[in-house]
Design brief:
Helix 8 packs across helix 14. The protein is globular, with a radius of gyration of 25 Å. The chain has 3 domains: 88 residues, Ubiquitin-like (UB roll); 114 residues, Alpha-Beta Plaits (2-Layer Sandwich), CATH 3.30.70; 354 residues, 3-Layer(aba) Sandwich (Rossmann fold). The protein has 583 residues and is α/β, with parallel strands linked by helices.
Length: 583
C-alpha cells in the first residue's frame, strides 16, 4: 500500500501522506478552509460544519476537518454550493451569538469576526435567539459569557484531553444544547484549576480572563501609590505575538521600555525571584535527602498544578515543596525587604505582576500570600492584558528602544529564564543543587536529559558525583496524573519531580496570546534557552543580587526569616472556595 495519496483541490494537484485530512491537505496549498471547531492540537470534533467542501462523486458536502483524503479525490472549496452552505451555517451561529462586539474582550481578535469579514456578513440575516444568561464571574481568574458561546467544543476537549479535569461539558440537546460545567455549577465548585487553557482555545469571547487592566491604570494614576511591576520569563517570548512578530521573538528590552513609559515606578524581573526560588527549593531538596524528609519532593511553582493536587490528591500535600512560586516570593520581598530599603510603607506599594497564566490571578488571592492586612501581589495581568495596556498607551512594541530592568530586583540568571519551559525548573535546580551538594563546579552546565517536550513525560537519573538522583518531569495535568499514579503504585522511586500544569510549561500558559499552539510553544521554549545561553550569569547561586539579599536580609536559605516570607504550606481544599476576602 502506498504511503502517499494523489488528489486535486480546486484543480490543483497535490501529493500528501496517507491519512491526511482535507483541511490539512488544503493548507499545503495555502488554502485556508473556514472553520471554528477545528484546532490543530485537538482530536477532531466536526461540530460546526463551517469547513464543508464539495467532493466529486459525493452526494453530500463533506466536513474537511474529519474527512481523510483518498487516491484520485477531487475537492472543491469554492463552489456556489459550498459558499451557500457555509454562509447558512455562519448565519445560524450569528443568530445565537450576542453581537456586542465593541465591548467584547476578543474584539479584533475573534475567529467569528474574521469569518464575518471573509463572507461579508455585515448585518444579521436571521432573528436574534441568543442567550440572555449573565456573565459568570465566580473566581479571580476566568470569566464565562454563555451568550457568546458558539458550541465548538474546543474548551471541552482541552479540559478533558490535555488537562484531564473535564470541568467543562456539553449539556442538553437541540436548541437547548450548551457548553457548561457539571450541573451548571460555578467554576470554583468544579474540578476546574483555573489554568485558562479553555480561554486560550476559545475562538470567541465566551471564555476570557478576569480583566485587571483598569485597576492597574488607576493605581498608576494615583500619586499616593508606588506601583512596581514584575514580569515572568515566558512573557518576554510571548508578547511579540500580539504585535505581529515571529513566535518566540525575544522582546525583553522593548517590553521594559513599554512598562516604564506606562508610568510604573519600578520595573523588575521575576527571573530574580526564580533564582531565589531555586536557592530555597534546591536547599529544601538537599535537606530532605540528607535528613529523611518527605520524598519525592514535587515543585510548587505552578498554581494550576497546586490547585489540582489540593483538590484531587491532598495526600501529596507534604510532598510539595514549601517554597512559594517566584511570583509569591517577589510579592513578599517587595513589601518587606524592598519597602524597608526604600523607606516605603508596604500599604502604599501596589505590586503588579505580568504572568503568562490565569491561575496566577487565583494564586495572588490566596490568603497565604499576604500579611498585616495587605496582599503581596495586588494585581496580576496576563500577557494578553499587558498587550492591551501597551495599545492603550498608543505604543508600537516592535519599534521601541530597549531598556534594562531596575535594581536591586532586576538581575536574573539564565537558570531563572528557563523556568518558563517544561524541564526548566528541574534544570535550574540541578545546576545549583549539584554544585552545593558536591562542592564542585559543574563539568557541563546543560542538563539535556531533563529538557522535556510539549505534552510529554520525561524521566532521568542525574549523577551527583556518584549519588544517583532519579527525577521526572511532566507538563499538562493529564500527564501529571500519570506521574502521580506511578508514585502511588510504587512503580517509580523518584526523588524530585517537576510538574507544570500547562502544555509546554509557562510558555503555553492560559494567559498567553490567542493563537498559541504546540508549534508556537516549541518556538518559545527555544527562545528561553537562547536567552539562557546569551546571559553571563547562568546559575542562580551566582546572581550577585541574590547574594546581596541573603547578606542583608535573609541570612541563608531555609533561615527563620526565609521560612516566614518565602515558604508556605498546602492543604486539602474543597471544591467550593471562599473569595470573600477579595471584596
Amino acid at each position: 500500500m502506498s504511503n502517499t495519496v494523489h488528489l486535486t483541490i480546486n484543480h490543483m494537484p497535490l501529493e500528501v501522506p496517507a491519512g491526511t485530512r482535507i483541511i490539512e491537505a488544503a493548507k499545503m496549498l495555502n488554502i485556508d478552509i473556514p472553520h471554528l471547531c477545528y484546532h490543530p492540537d485537538q482530536t477532531i470534533k466536526a461540530h460546526c460544519r463551517m469547513c464543508m467542501v464539495e467532493v466529486t462523486g459525493q452526494r453530500k458536502l463533506l466536513a474537511a476537518c474529519s474527512t481523510v483524503v483518498w487516491e484520485g479525490m477531487e475537492v472543491f472549496t469554492d463552489t456556489k454550493k459550498v459558499y451557500d452552505a457555509q454562509v447558512g451555517v455562519l448565519d445560524l451561529i450569528l443568530a445565537d451569538h450576542k453581537q456586542n462586539c465593541l465591548s467584547c474582550a476578543r474584539n479584533g481578535n475573534c475567529e467569528l469576526q474574521k469569518l464575518c469579514r471573509r463572507f461579508n456578513r455585515l448585518l444579521p440575516e436571521l432573528p436574534d435567539i441568543s442567550s440572555n444568561e449573565p456573565l459568570r464571574i465566580d473566581n479571580p481568574s476566568i470569566v464565562r459569557d454563555p451568550s457568546k458561546c458558539v458550541k465548538c467544543g474546543r474548551c471541552v476537549k482541552v479540559c478533558a484531553e490535555v488537562q484531564g479535569c473535564a470541568a467543562l461539558t456539553a449539556a442538553n440537546r437541540s436548541g437547548d444544547f450548551k457548553i457548561t460545567t457539571a450541573f451548571d455549577l460555578p467554576m470554583d465548585q468544579t474540578d476546574c484549576v483555573l489554568c485558562g487553557q479553555c480561554s486560550l482555545v476559545c475562538p470567541v469571547g465566551a471564555i476570557v480572563e478576569v480583566d485587571n487592566t483598569n485597576d492597574v491604570v488607576r493605581a498608576i494614576q494615583d500619586p499616593r501609590k508606588h506601583v512596581v511591576v514584575q514580569v515572568a520569563p515566558s512573557v518576554r517570548v510571548g508578547l511579540g505575538d500580539e504585535f505581529g512578530l515571529e513566535p518566540g521573538a525575544i522582546v525583553t528590552g522593548k517590553m521594559v521600555t513599554a512598562l516604564k513609559m506606562m508610568g510604573f515606578d519600578k520595573v523588575f524581573d521575576t527571573n530574580f525571584t526564580a533564582d531565589l526560588t531555586i536557592m530555597e527549593e534546591g536547599s529544601e531538596l538537599l535537606d530532605r535527602i540528607k535528613n529523611g524528609g518527605k520524598l519525592p519532593m514535587i515543585t510548587s511553582c505552578s498554581p494550576g498544578w497546586v490547585t489540582y493536587m489540593e483538590k484531587h490528591h491532598p495526600e501529596l500535600c507534604d510532598n510539595l515543596s514549601t517554597a512559594k512560586s517566584p511570583q509569591g516570593m517577589f510579592g513578599a520581598v517587595v513589601k518587606t525587604y524592598y519597602a524597608q530599603k526604600m523607606g516605603w510603607d508596604p500599604h502604599d506599594i501596589v505590586s503588579v505582576s505580568v504572568m503568562p497564566c490565569t491561575a496566577k490571578k487565583y494564586e495572588a488571592s490566596r490568603p497565604e500570600l499576604g500579611r498585616d492586612g495587605y496582599r503581596d501581589v495586588d494585581y496580576v495581568l496576563t500577557t494578553r492584558e499587558l498587550a492591551k495596556l501597551i495599545r492603550y498607551e498608543g505604543l508600537d512594541l516592535s519599534v521601541l528602544p530597549e531598556s534594562e530592568f531596575d535594581s536591586p530586583l532586576g538581575i536574573g540568571s539564565g537558570a531563572g529564564a528557563i523556568f518558563g519551559a517544561t524541564g526548566g525548573v528541574m534544570e535550574a535546580a540541578l545546576r545549583t543543587a549539584y554544585e552545593v551538594y558536591t562542592g564542585q563546579t559543574l563539568p557541563r552546565l546543560e542538563f539535556e536529559a531533563v529538557r522535556n517536550d510539549v505534552n510529554a513525560i520525561k524521566e532521568a537519573t542525574i549523577d551527583l558525583n556518584g549519588t544517583p538522583l532519579k527525577v521526572a518531569i511532566a507538563n499538562g495535568l493529564k500527564n501529571a496524573e500519570e506521574i502521580i499514579r506511578r508514585v502511588e503504585s510504587g512503580e517509580a522511586d523518584y526523588i524530585f519531580i517537576e510538574i507544570m500544569a500547562c502544555p509546554g510549561g509557562c510558555i503555553g500558559g492560559g494567559g498567553q496570546p490567542i493563537g498559541t499552539n504546540n508549534a508556537v510553544r516549541d518556538a518559545r521554549i527555544k527562545a528561553l534557552y537562547e536567552i539562557d545561553r546569551s546571559l553571563p550569569l547562568r546559575k542562580s547561586h551566582d546572581n550577585p543580587e541574590i547574594k546581596t539579599i541573603y547578606e542583608e536580609f535573609f541570612g541563608a536559605p531555609l533561615s527563620h526569616r526565609s521560612h516566614e516570607l518565602l515558604h508556605t504550606h498546602y492543604h486539602a481544599r474543597p471544591k467550593k472556595h471562599d473569595f470573600s476576602h477579595l471584596k
